[in-house]
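Thread amino acids onto this structure.
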């Protein structure tokens, strides 16, 4: 049940670019919306008072690149995802089990402080279905901006698992119509291969989708009012994707002047995803079971993403963060690590990392008027931490409270994977 709350005695970090700690103020919430921010001395008799005892209250985090079907479990060997998904979706019983799992992962996102997610490739129409159930209050989870299944090509990235394999442009446009009927929020394309698709050194992110197909999909999607996000892991991929109308580059690659020009010309933004590349690049291969080629390519992609993010920021190209959850070693509760890597490897301040994962992401996702900051008129999407995240982003690891659309979850608990925690903690 949504009540009227007054959050007092908190140290407010509002999510704006130059946020400073604000004290002595009280956040008023009615029917899930922040109605006012007033001095602590105000009359609060109409509200249930929540004393934050000097803890920090900040906007809920926004994870801009999520695959809800993945659990982040380390893999002994590469899975045949297409075969697995085929099996999962083959009967009503296995589909029901898979949907329950996906719903559970969405709850984990919320309990870890992520109050909005943008899903970029999922099982069938699960993501829009879950989005609507969360909105209706029958499921617990974050606000979801869903693309459902992405569009790939035969032999392309994630083809047959969380993306369809379109052999022709009419096939791709047909899928667009289907997505439209499912009421998706955006469209996802798999323009290049990924780290594990490359068979030789130095060529991760091979261009898989033709420029003509990208253009045809983007034109139709834009005409229907959708933005288009594209999986891209090579400079050639970035150029072809931007030239043909893509709105956001997911992952990125080593940036040159031409790419900078194209980003600016097309008003596109970059979604940085350091989390999935890090294990392949930096872990001992006995842990990832990666071949020498995969590790080499993992490093090319990792360095490429860092370079892309640094040059984007230096050239005023907007950047947001996603952790590509579902990849091995990347769990549904660990988004805070992406902020930490952004600070560590791209060199931004903690405050800028926090702004990027809150207000900035909301703006670029097209929901800046709804969420992303602690301001009058915004949804009450907030999290409470004991420590100050401006001093150390690890403060986001353990939360005192999550508030989602005005609903309170105190002392949220999540079951964590010990091995994943132990290995990733070595890179903090």
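Threaded sequence (428 positions):
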């Amino acid at each position: 049940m949504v009540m009227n709350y007054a959050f007092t005695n908190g140290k407010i970090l509002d999510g704006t670019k130059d946020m400073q700690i604000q004290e002595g103020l009280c956040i008023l919430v009615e029917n899930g919306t922040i109605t006012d921010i007033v001095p602590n001395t105000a009359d609060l008799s109409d509200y249930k008072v929540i004393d934050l005892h000097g803890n920090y209250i900040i906007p809920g985090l926004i994870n801009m690149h999520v695959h809800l079907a993945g659990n982040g479990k380390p893999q002994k060997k590469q899975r045949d995802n297409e075969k697995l998904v085929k099996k999962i979706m083959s009967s009503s019983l296995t589909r029901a089990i898979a949907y329950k799992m996906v719903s559970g992962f969405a709850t984990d996102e919320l309990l870890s402080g992520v109050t909005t997610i943008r899903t970029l490739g999922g099982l069938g129409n699960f993501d829009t279905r879950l989005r609507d159930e969360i909105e209706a209050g029958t499921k617990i989870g974050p606000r979801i901006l869903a693309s459902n299944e992405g569009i790939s090509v035969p032999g392309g990235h994630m083809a047959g698992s969380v993306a369809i394999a379109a052999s022709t442009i009419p096939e791709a446009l047909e899928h667009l119509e289907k997505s439209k009927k499912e009421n998706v929020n955006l469209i996802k394309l798999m323009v290049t291969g990924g780290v594990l698709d490359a068979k030789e050194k130095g060529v991760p992110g091979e261009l898989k989708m033709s420029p003509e197909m990208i253009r045809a999909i983007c034109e139709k999607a834009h005409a229907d009012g959708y933005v288009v996000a594209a999986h891209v892991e090579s400079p050639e991929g970035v150029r072809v994707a931007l030239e043909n109308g893509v709105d956001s580059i997911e992952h990125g690659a080593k940036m040159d002047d031409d790419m900078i020009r194209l980003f600016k010309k097309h008003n596109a933004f970059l979604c940085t995803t350091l989390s999935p590349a890090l294990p392949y690049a930096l872990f001992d291969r006995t842990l990832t079971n990666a071949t020498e080629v995969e590790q080499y390519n993992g490093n090319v992609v990792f360095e490429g993403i860092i370079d892309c993010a640094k040059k984007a920021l230096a050239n005023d190209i907007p950047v947001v963060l996603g952790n590509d959850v579902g990849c091995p070693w990347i769990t549904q509760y660990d988004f805070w690590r992406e902020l930490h890597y952004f600070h560590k490897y791209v060199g931004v301040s903690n405050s800028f990392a926090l702004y990027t994962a809150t207000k900035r992401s909301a703006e670029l996702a097209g929901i800046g008027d709804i969420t992303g900051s602690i301001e009058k008129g915004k949804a009450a999407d907030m999290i409470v931490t004991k420590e100050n995240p401006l001093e150390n982003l690890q403060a986001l690891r353990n939360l005192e409270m999550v508030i989602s659309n005005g609903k309170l979850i105190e002392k949220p608990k999540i079951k964590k994977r010990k091995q994943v925690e132990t290995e990733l903690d070595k890179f903090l």
